[in-house]
Each structure stands twice: as C-alpha cells, then as structure tokens.
C-alpha cells in the first residue's frame, strides 16, 4: 500500500527544492485508519482509530510548516479526513471534504500535502464522510508561533488538549441508518472527554504554575460548558485570534469551536473536578476529569460545581465579551489591530436561514430552503475539468425565499477579494453553529429576534474576534464580515452533524479569473479521480 512511484517522485522533488531554497520545515506523518473496540461510556463499540489511538495523534506544527500526512484506509468503506479551522490557503485541494476530494477507498492511501501558512492557534481534525465522526477518528491540531514572534502571555508550564462532546452508545452505522431512514437521532447517551467517560483522565499540575488548556467541542449535536472546580480561566486565544485576557468561571463552547484558556494552580493542593456539561438541553449530561496537584493532599471535596444550563442571555453576553487583542501579534509580527476590518466597505450581503423541512416524507435540514445532496463527482474536480451536469452556480439564493424545502447540489458563486457581510438567521428553537472552510471571519454582531439593516448600528467594527465557527442562538441572528481572500471550493456547513448530514450545508466557489499560481495551487499530481472525473488528467 506504499505510495506510487509518481507520488514518491513528486515528494522527493518537493523536498529537494525545499532544501535548496531553505523553505519552511516539513513534518511527516503516516497514519493507518482502522476499526477497533472502544468503551467511551463503558459499553463496547466499534470505533475509528488512527494508529490504534482514539483520539488520534496530535498534530503539533509551527506557523508556515509543511505537513505531509499519508493516510491509509484500512476500513471497509471510503474515508476522508478534514481539518477544522485550518485555512488551506490557495489549496482547497487538501480540504478533505467530499466537495473537494474523492474518498480514499478501502485498502488504499492518499497523501495530504498542506501548509499552515500565516496561521497560529488551536484546531482539530475529523473524518468528514458517512457520519464517521460518531465513531471517533478525530484529534487535536495546534499551530505555535514562529520563534521571535511575540506571544502575549508567558510560556505555560504545560499545554493540554481537551476534545469533548456528546456521544452515542450505538455504532455510527446504526446512527447513519436512522438518518437515512428519514428520522432524527434521539438524545445523546453521554459526554466524553478525550475519548473517555467520567474520571478516566487526570491532568497533573504543579502548585503555583500556569497551564494552557485548548478546549474543542467535537460533539455531534449539543453545545457544552467547560469549567474547573475552584479555579478561574483566562481566555487567551480563539481559533487563531489572540484575545483580550478576560477571566471566566466557566466557558460555553459550541459545536466545532475551540478556545484556549490559561489556568493557574493557585488553590490548596488536592484534586479538583474538570467538568463538561451540555447546554440548552432539558436533560443535562455531564462528564468529569481530575485536575490534580502534584503535591495533592487528598481527593476531590466540596459540592459538584454546577454551571449554566438553559440560560441563553448568559451565553450571549459571554460571546459578546470576547475581544481581539489589538496590540498582540498574530502569526506575523505586526499587531492584530493593524487590519481595520470595520473601515472596509462590504461588496455583498448574504442572508442564510436554516430550517428543518420534511422532504419526500423524510426529515431534512436546509439553508434558504435548499437541502444539499452530494453529487457523484467532487465539485472542485468538476469545476476544474469543466464537467457539465454536476452542479450549477447560483443554485442557492442569497436570501431566504420562504418556500418549501427542496433537494439540490447547492453552490454559491463569489468573487476573489470581495468583502462580504453574511447574516445567519436561526428561526429554530435550538442553537445552531456554522463553519466556513478556508476562511476566517469577523463576528460583528449577534442578537435575538429578526435581523434588519438597522441591526448594523450595533455592530462591533473595532475589536471583535475573527474565527471560523460561530453560534447562532434560538430565534436569533449572527452577522459576520468575511474577506474572500482564498480561491477555491469551500464548504459552508452546520457543525450540528445531524443537520450537516441531512443537508444543512452548501459550497462557496471563490473564483479568480487570473488562473495564476499566486491565487491557487494547481491540482495535486496524486489527486484521486472518481465519478465523472475518471479519465481526466
């Protein structure tokens, strides 16, 4: 199952050129994706493992590193990995979703070649096809600043990754069958932290020292709240943005989101609970881990540290309190505040309204009444080879239509270097979470009720955070400003994995007529062809 002679030659030439030119470092990974027995909630399940690990191996990179990740698919069905929040500049070919990549067939491999260009922060990777995420296959992904680039806090004594979220005891194939049959999923069975249930992990710290926790919600359907008994958390980074260092007792983390916080071990030496609970659910699920002082004098004491449960206003106010650190450096030495997003005129307004229509007797989810269905050929390949009959540009409107839901392979066209306003409108009774691949956007406003042009009067046009995933509260709206600075075919999706699987997604085709390597990399020499792209070279 080794790489082909052609692919190996390409990699050799890439490395040779890199050595001659003194380019950014290369990091190599070889991953074997298999099934294996896992027991997240104490019940034996079929999980998806990477190198026999769940969660999978952590990727640790530095800004501008080149990552060569060779993935062998030892499952019995096609597989892809995607990289949540990693921007893939000029390179949607490596995004790892079905709109851009043909799946890796069972018994085959594919080598991702990607660069974490001009990026820092905390992210995760995950399997993007066939509801595989419900079986695991995910892992942490962190990008450190280059040496010499100032970071606005002292180096922590330790760096911990928390991958938490809701979980089902049923195998992913059973859950997928429920969705394919036209029904929604039942309420989750529990919460897991780093692949395990309560008290399976212990994080050991030294008294008086400060530690970084990178917290990702990798769940399927619910927001979570994170807290550490008796300790304050200082937020320092949100998906690549250094923030003002606000202090919180607990933190809401919505589906697909990642936060970094600093925690100082400044309490009496003993064991404390790390707690994750569901948010905005009638039944509150929880899971715990242990925050242990190395000189601990005893176990956990005191009452269970309950946090917020269904309070939307509390969460909304916390979200509004997140601010960009204007004087701190990002991936480059210049201050984050040097980009004055609030002074740029928007070139277009797009309003996206989610809904849950029943279509042909089956539960579906939709954006502006369009429920996405995958084509037989990845959209990026069809676009590149100009294959007719796969998708149509403009197959999703810019505004809600109020019509009934319908099925469509929906692609929205957009111009490279545009600067757009997007308003996510949630008319449902549950929290929604939206992600845009290949882009980082500015969260300029959110509120309850109906958005109108007058809502712009309350936008934060000075120091909001930029990120790639944002929540929309029930019966509410969230507005973002987004520079279209990345040519490619990019997935815009719900991070509620049931909604995403049943159609609440579409693709944004950011187009440049220049056809230049300065705007977009050429198709990789090892790109897999499938569907109508078979035979095209």
Automatic annotation (TrEMBL):
Residues 32-146, 159-296, 376-513 form the Plastocyanin-like domain. It comes from the Eukaryota. One of its GO terms (molecular function) is oxidoreductase activity. Keywords: Glycoprotein, Signal. SUPFAM superfamilies: Cupredoxins. It holds the Pfam family Cu-oxidase_3. Residues 1-22 form the signal peptide. Belongs to the multicopper oxidase family. This is L-ascorbate oxidase-like. It comes from Glycine soja (Wild soybean).
């Amino acid at each position: 199952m080794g790489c082909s002679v052609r692919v190996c030659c390409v990699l050799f030439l890439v490395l040779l050129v890199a050595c001659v030119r003194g380019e950014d470092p290369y990091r190599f990974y070889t991953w074997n994706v298999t099934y294996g027995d896992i027991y997240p909630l104490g019940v034996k399940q079929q999980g998806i493992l990477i190198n026999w690990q769940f969660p999978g191996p952590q990727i640790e990179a530095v800004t501008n590193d080149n990552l060569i990740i060779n993935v062998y698919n030892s499952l019995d069905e096609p597989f892809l990995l995607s990289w949540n929040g990693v921007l893939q500049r000029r390179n949607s070919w490596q995004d790892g979703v079905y709109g851009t990549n043909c799946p890796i067939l069972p018994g085959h491999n594919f080598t991702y070649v990607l660069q974490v260009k001009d990026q820092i922060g905390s992210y995760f990777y995950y399997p993007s096809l066939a509801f595989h995420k419900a079986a695991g296959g995910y892992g942490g992904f962190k990008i450190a600043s280059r040496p010499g680039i100032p970071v606005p806090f002292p180096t922590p004594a330790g760096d911990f990754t928390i991958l938490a979220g809701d979980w089902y005891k049923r195998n992913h194939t059973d859950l997928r069958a429920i969705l394919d049959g036209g029904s929604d999923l039942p309420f989750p069975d529990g919460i897991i932290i780093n692949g395990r249930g309560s008290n399976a992990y212990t994080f050991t710290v030294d008294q008086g020292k400060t530690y970084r926790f990178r917290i990702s919600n990798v769940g399927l359907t619910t927001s979570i709240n994170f807290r550490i008994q008796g300790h304050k958390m200082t937020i320092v980074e949100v998906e690549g943005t250094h923030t003002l260092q606000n202090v919180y007792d607990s933190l809401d983390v919505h589906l697909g989101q990642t936060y970094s916080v600093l925690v100082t071990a400044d309490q009496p030496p003993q064991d404390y609970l790390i707690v994750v609970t569901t948010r905005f659910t009638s039944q509150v699920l929880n899971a715990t881990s242990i925050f242990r002082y190395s000189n601990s004098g005893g176990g956990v004491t005191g009452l269970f540290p309950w946090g917020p449960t269904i309070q939307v206003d509390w969460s909304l106010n916390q979200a509004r309190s997140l601010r960009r650190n204007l004087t701190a450096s990002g991936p480059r030495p210049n201050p984050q505040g040097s980009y004055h997003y609030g002074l740029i005129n928007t070139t277009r307004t797009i309003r996206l309204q989610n809904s849950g229509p029943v279509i042909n007797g089956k539960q579906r989810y939709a954006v502006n009444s369009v429920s996405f269905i995958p084509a037989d050929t990845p959209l990026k390949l069809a676009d590149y080879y100009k294959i007719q009959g796969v998708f149509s540009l403009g197959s999703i409107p810019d505004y809600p239509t109020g019509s009934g839901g319908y099925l469509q392979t929906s692609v929205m066209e957009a111009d490279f270097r545009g600067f757009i306003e997007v308003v996510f409108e949630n008319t449902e009774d549950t929290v929604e979470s939206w992600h845009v691949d290949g882009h980082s956007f500015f969260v300029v406003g959110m509120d309850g009720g109906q958005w109108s042009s007058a809502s712009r009067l309350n936008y934060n046009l000075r120091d909001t955070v930029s990120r790639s995933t944002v929540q929309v509260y029930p019966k509410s709206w969230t507005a973002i400003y987004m520079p279209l600075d990345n040519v490619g075919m990019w997935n815009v999706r719900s991070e509620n994995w049931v909604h995403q699987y049943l159609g609440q997604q579409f693709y944004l085709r950011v187009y440049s007529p220049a056809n230049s390597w300065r705007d977009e990399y050429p198709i990789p020499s090892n790109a897999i062809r499938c569907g109508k792209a078979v035979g095209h070279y």
